[in-house]
Amino acid sequence: MVLDCRWLPIGGPGRTTELLLRGLAAGAAPEDWALWGPPAASRLAWPGATVVPITHDPRLGLGQRHARAMPHARLAVFMHQQRPLRSGPAITMVYDTIALRYGTNPVVRRLKRAFLARVAATSRRILTISEHSRASIIADLGVAPERIDVLRFPFDDAFVDRVLLQRQSAPPEPVALYVGGFLPHKNLPRLLTAFGTTQFCRDGGRLTLVGGTAAQVRELWRGANPEAHRYLTVLPSCTQADLDHLFATSQFLVQPSLEEGFGLPAWEAMCCGLPVCASDGGSLPEVVGATVAPFPAEDTAAMAAAIDACAGGGRQGAGAAAAASDRLRATAPTVAQFGAQFRGIVEANVP
Length: 351
What we know:
Layout: E1 2-4, H1 11-26, E2 34-37, H2 39-44, E3 50-53, E4 76-78, E5 90-93, H3 106-121, E6 125-128, H4 131-141, E7 148-150, H5 157-167, E8 175-179, H6 188-195, H7 199-202, E9 206-212, H8 214-223, E10 232-236, H9 240-249, E11 252-255, H10 264-271, E12 276-278, H11 284-288, H12 300-311, H13 314-331, H14 335-348
Parallel strand pairs: 1-2, 1-4, 2-3, 4-5, 5-6, 6-7, 8-9, 8-11, 9-10, 11-12
């Protein structure tokens, strides 16, 4: 088997790949697996795994730039839908079909639909991470429901314990934290509008946005109201250590998306006991469950009210968030169970 690990340093897919490799290493070591990816793959490899190094960005050429460099295998496992369209048995992780609805123009969206349809047609199985994404893949790409497996995302004890340890000594900050890409479906213009009208903002609360590219950060600053410069901090992607610190010191996390395939920042915030203010976009109600009352994503007044309600929760809100963390620790899969579920699906599909 070849496992495509090239996304390791990149956003949510990189975090998912990291958790998977840790989960696989925690169980009985899989034999005859080759990890195709950057140096970080070597640090997460288990005895017996072969690491095939490649340092190029997997997004180049819509994932096709280095297709010929991929090792041959009985089965290729791709950790992102933007993958080489090479022949041979494959399993593909498709996180969402959001690109078919937001951004770019109709011609580009049609090309993306054709590409994703080809990805689905050349995959023995499709893996995804929420029931919302599963339904979208069925509706948008015509994939038969029985060809799709939904992976339950794990509770990462190591991450949570790091955050809780920092929280014991790091002073809390009056910060609403956003983590994620600066893409059209993330709904950031409405977030900026709503935040500026909140009592939390008037009382000195700040908004920190993390995760855009350098170009996206510059563009967002150019488009922001000059008044927003008083309370807004905009950062590009940062290290996991920096994210740990932000999760430990922020007052709450806000995720205003028009649509999400999962909503990893909201999930990780709940896991570490950080209160969450989330929209009703896509999978978010599924992910936050009964812990959070989602607000309508396109309603800026409702978003502002939800931000103030989350900010005003005080000890009661922090207590509810801590209780939610305890429930997730008890009920969500462990990292090892996540790896075992993934491995079971892969090994059942080896030709």
